[in-house]
């Protein structure tokens, strides 16, 4: 995995949007770069941006969500981090962002967003947090912990590991190597063993709660159950016999009651038949009369039809004379209206020649009136009244104005004068532009001279401060040397004082354990007192402190003067650039003005004044031309109005003559109205004629319809008489053959259809009831005889019912007893099955507990220490192997080994000291750093396993190295470039900055903000 590009916005002190392109040639060629800056400037924020973009968290903040976000810059409303990285599968872009409500600094935090994009195909793969995390782990082969151990190498963790004791080293090693899972497994095994033991105890307790019957109790209850079952069966048989007797008695009683009810119903039926006898006779007579209805009913209908026809004929014949009179009167009115219509049409034909003449004269009048109105509308009101002005006078005035206009133009046109005026104005503007440019150039030259004078004035002050700095540095060196001498003397005195007790223990003639001398001249001497030297040392420290303050003040003054000098130099350079920028526009103005040299500002002013005067003269001349043109225009307009007034007077005269001619033709003022009256008379006469004709036709049609109706009725009545004679003959023959004496007797026997139907239904019901009762009586009698022949018992139904209830009650008690015994035995059977199943579960749980007991004996412990120590020993041994391979690249002097007695203790074999084994606690600062660096690189290789990690970031730790060790470490890191790796070193050590050419500098600004600069670094927004 290789980081190609980092882009982020508003993270910690790095406010704004930034982009770092790690594909810049500077990174590719060097293979190592430094991230430098003061402590707290924001160097580690770059690593936070990488972690945020990939995993949505940082090493310093494990959770970034809607409730907490400590990485967003203060007073901002949004932040994001984006990383473009490359794996063997392709290039990928991972983007993480979060914003506050409305993207305001005081808004509530919203849920963060996370997405991953296939950069080659520009396709979004996932946008859900979990899906993105799974995809990142699949593509890179690393989760967050492995990533921080493989790509972000924190030296501080290994330095703490080297200096810790055995008890504190285990948790540090667990944190560095990520082996906390083994502690969790050990604790989980211990907890699981307890859970399995508790589960076994619960099973045993549940089994002990099951109460079972002993075998004797179970046999007794079974025997009692069998006896009760036999009694129940016997009692059931008796109940069945008793129920049979009761059923026979109840059926016999029902049949007896039914026979009595049927006998009563038959008696009631006979009474109903007697009451219906008159209706029965009427029904029979009506049925015989119904046989004659087909011959009698048509005859009766024809008689009615003939009577109704006669009733219609009488009024029609009575109204026929009145209809004839109305038809004759309508015909006379029609003839009169026709005569009036012919008279109106003849009058219109007679007046046609006069109408055509009047219409022609009216058209001429309208045309002349329109001309007069049009001419009147064009003239103002003052010219419509009175006499018209003299045209000759107006013509003379126009000729005078034209001569004055020609004199004002003086051979030129208005356009030519205006163009000349524009040229003068343009020249004036160009002169103004030239004057402004020249004044700007003079001001810049003056400012440049002033800046040069100020810069020259700074030189004496700079020399004075530099001389003071050199003097103060010399004094500081002298005081520091004197301080070192006094400190050596003080340490010597302290060592002498520390040996006081050993000197007193020396004996004359016996050798000193340290030097071997038998003479001890200093045995009785007192150690020297250095009170004065201590006071001098204290005064020197005070002088050095004061001198350091003075040096700092002088350095500040020198920096200020240098800053002022840079500002003046920058000001001179800016003025020079501005002077050079003014030359092209000045030359352009000179070319436009056709000048070879640049005139002085006062000369430019004189030329401008002359141009303004000439422009004013042209302006006055144009004004006079405008006045003359306006006057000429007015005179010509007046001439046109006078001509229009003369034309109006002529048109009025013609109109008067036409009006007189029209009056002579006809006194009718409106020709159209006159013609309209003639046309209206014709329309009214035609309408009256049409109405009279329609009325005559209507009256004649009414008369014809009445005559036709009378004729039709007479013909219909003749047909009815013929049909009625035939029907009467057929009816008389049928009546003679029937039992009816005459037509009146037959008519009395006939009944309406509804009455006949009602009587027929009543007769049918009586007949059906008789048949039904007869059948029921026969069936009931047969059943009653059969039951009486059985004669099962003499007891009544009440006696049999009471006996059956007693037997049923006794049977229920037996069933309850049997059910209670059966339930007891069933419960015992179920408990026996539960007991057996519980025993099987106990046996299985016992085996499971034994399995966990075995595992607990191997790795389980309440604090996780047992398995953790074993796993950490293996991990520690593997990490040492990886670290030794990295250490050999930096130095062949050292080799790391585990302590033989204490597995978590780390020792160093010093090959330069005959393979001496040393503790890591005795290593110098530089040696500790090299060992820590080797451990970090070893862990990176161990954590990445099969993942190709081509970008590494090393955080701090170089401050303890001497020059040789620093060179060795940097050579080792640079050597990783041969493996295609890019190494980023985070440090504030000046020596590191000097030795690494490619750097990303983090510079603090005011307000707690910082900025970054370096190859590929771009500020996308402020």
Automatic annotation (TrEMBL):
Q: Which Pfam families match?
A: AAA_23, SbcC_Walker_B
Span of domain Rad50/SbcC-type AAA: 6-270
User: Which GO MF terms are attached to this record?
Assistant: ATP hydrolysis activity; exonuclease activity
Coiled-coil segments: 245-272, 327-378, 530-564, 618-790
Origin: domain of life: Bacteria
Q: Which GO terms describe its biological process?
A: double-strand break repair
Keywords, alphabetical:
Coiled coil, Exonuclease, Hydrolase, Nuclease
Q: Where is this region: Disordered?
A: 444-482, 502-529
Q: What is this protein called?
A: Exonuclease SbcC
| Organism expressing this protein natively | Marinobacterium iners DSM 11526
């Amino acid at each position: 995995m290789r980081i190609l590009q980092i882009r982020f916005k508003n993270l910690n002190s790095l406010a704004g949007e930034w982009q770092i392109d790690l594909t810049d040639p500077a990174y590719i060629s060097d293979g190592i770069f430094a991230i430098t800056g003061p402590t707290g400037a924001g160097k580690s924020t770059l690593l936070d941006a990488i972690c945020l973009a990939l995993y949505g968290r940082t090493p310093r903040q494990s959770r970034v969500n809607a409730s907490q976000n400590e990485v967003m810059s203060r007073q901002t409303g949004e932040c994001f981090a984006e990383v473009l990285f490359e794996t063997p599968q392709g290039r990928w872009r991972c983007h993480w962002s979060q914003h506050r409500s409305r993207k305001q600094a005081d808004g509530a935090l919203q849920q963060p967003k996370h997405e991953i994009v296939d950069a080659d195909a520009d396709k979004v793969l996932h946008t859900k947090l979990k899906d993105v995390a799974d995809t990142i782990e699949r593509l890179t082969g690393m989760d967050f912990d492995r990533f921080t151990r493989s790509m972000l190498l924190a030296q501080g963790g290994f330095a703490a590991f080297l200096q810790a004791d055995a008890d504190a080293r285990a948790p540090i090693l667990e944190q560095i190597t990520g082996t906390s899972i083994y502690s969790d497994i050990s604790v989980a095994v211990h907890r699981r063993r307890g859970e399995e033991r508790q589960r076994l105890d619960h099973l045993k307790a549940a089994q002990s709660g099951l109460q079972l019957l002993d075998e004797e109790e179970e046999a007794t209850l079974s025997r009692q159950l069998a006896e009760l079952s036999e009694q129940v069966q016997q009692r059931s048989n008796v109940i069945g016999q008793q129920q049979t007797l009761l059923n026979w008695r109840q059926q016999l009683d029902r049949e007896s009651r039914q026979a009595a009810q049927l006998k009563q119903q038959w008696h009631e039926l006979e009474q109903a038949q007697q009451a219906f006898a008159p209706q029965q006779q009427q029904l029979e007579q009506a049925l015989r009369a119904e046989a004659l209805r087909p011959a009698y009913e048509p005859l009766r209908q024809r008689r009615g039809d003939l009577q109704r026809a006669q009733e219609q004929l009488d009024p029609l014949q009575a109204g026929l004379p009145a209809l004839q009179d109305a038809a004759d009167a309508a015909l006379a009115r029609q003839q009169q209206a026709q005569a009036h219509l012919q008279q109106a049409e003849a009058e219109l034909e007679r007046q046609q020649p006069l109408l055509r003449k009047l219409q022609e004269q009216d058209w001429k009048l309208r045309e002349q009136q329109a001309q007069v109105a049009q001419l009147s509308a064009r003239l103002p009101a003052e010219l419509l009244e009175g006499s018209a002005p003299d045209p000759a006078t107006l013509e003379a005035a126009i000729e005078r104005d034209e001569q004055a206009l020609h004199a004002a133009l003086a051979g030129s046109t208005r356009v030519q004068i205006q163009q000349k005026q524009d040229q003068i104005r343009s020249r004036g503007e160009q002169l103004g532009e030239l004057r402004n440019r020249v004044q700007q150039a003079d001001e810049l030259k003056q400012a440049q001279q002033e800046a040069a004078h100020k810069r020259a004035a700074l030189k004496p002050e700079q020399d004075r401060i530099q001389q003071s700095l050199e003097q103060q540095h010399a004094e500081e060196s002298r005081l520091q040397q004197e301080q070192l001498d006094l400190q050596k003397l003080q340490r010597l005195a302290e060592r002498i004082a520390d040996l006081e007790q050993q000197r007193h223990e020396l004996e004359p003639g016996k050798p000193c354990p340290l030097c071997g001398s038998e003479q001890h001249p200093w045995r009785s001497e007192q150690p020297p007192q250095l009170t004065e030297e201590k006071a001098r040392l204290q005064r020197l420290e005070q002088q050095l402190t004061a001198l350091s303050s003075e040096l700092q003040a002088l350095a500040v003054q020198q920096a200020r003067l240098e800053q002022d000098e840079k500002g003046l130099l920058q000001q001179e350079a800016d003025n020079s650039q501005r002077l050079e920028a003014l030359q092209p526009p000045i030359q352009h103005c000179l070319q436009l003005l056709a000048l070879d040299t640049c005139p002085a500002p006062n000369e430019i002013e004189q030329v401008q004044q002359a141009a303004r005067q000439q422009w004013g003269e042209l302006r006055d001349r144009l004004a006079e031309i405008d006045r003359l043109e306006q006057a000429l225009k007015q005179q010509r307009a007046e001439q046109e109005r006078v001509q229009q007034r003369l034309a109006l007077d002529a048109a009025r005269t013609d109109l008067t003559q036409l009006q007189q001619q029209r009056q002579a033709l006809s006194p009718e003022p409106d020709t159209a109205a006159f013609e309209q009256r003639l046309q209206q008379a014709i329309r009214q006469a035609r309408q009256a004629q049409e109405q009279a004709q329609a009325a005559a036709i209507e009256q004649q049609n009414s008369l014809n319809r009445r005559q036709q109706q009378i004729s039709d009725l007479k013909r219909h009545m003749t047909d009815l008489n013929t049909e009625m004679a035939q029907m009467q003959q057929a009816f008389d023959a049928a009546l003679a053959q029937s039992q009816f004496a005459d037509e009146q007797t037959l008519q009395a026997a006939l009944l309406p259809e509804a009455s006949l139907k009602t009587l027929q239904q009543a007769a049918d019901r009586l007949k059906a009831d008789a048949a039904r009762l007869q059948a029921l009586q026969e069936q009931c009698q047969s059943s009653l005889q059969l039951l009486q022949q059985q004669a099962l018992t003499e007891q009544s139904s009440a006696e049999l019912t009471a006996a059956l209830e007693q037997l049923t009650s006794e049977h229920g008690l037996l069933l309850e007893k049997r059910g209670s015994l059966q339930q007891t035995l069933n419960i015992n059977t179920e408990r026996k099955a539960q007991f057996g199943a519980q025993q099987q579960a106990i046996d299985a749980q016992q085996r499971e507990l034994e399995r966990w007991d075995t595992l607990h004996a191997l790795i389980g412990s309440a604090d996780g220490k047992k398995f953790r120590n074993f796993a950490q020993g293996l991990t520690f041994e593997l990490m040492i192997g990886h670290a030794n391979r990295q250490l050999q690249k930096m130095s062949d002097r050292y080799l790391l080994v585990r302590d033989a007695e204490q597995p978590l203790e780390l020792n160093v074999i010093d090959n330069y000291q005959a393979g001496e084994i040393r503790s890591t606690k005795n290593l110098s600062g530089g040696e500790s750093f090299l060992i820590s660096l080797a451990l970090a690189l070893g862990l990176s290789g161990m954590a990445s396993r099969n993942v190709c990690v081509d970008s590494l970031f090393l955080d701090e730790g170089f401050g303890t190295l001497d020059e040789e060790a620093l060179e060795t470490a940097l050579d080792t890191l640079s050597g990783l470039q041969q493996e295609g790796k890019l190494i980023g070193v985070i440090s504030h050590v000046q020596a590191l900055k000097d030795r690494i050419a490619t750097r990303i500098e983090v510079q603090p600004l005011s307000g707690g903000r910082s900025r970054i600069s370096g190859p590929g670094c771009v500020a996308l927004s402020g």
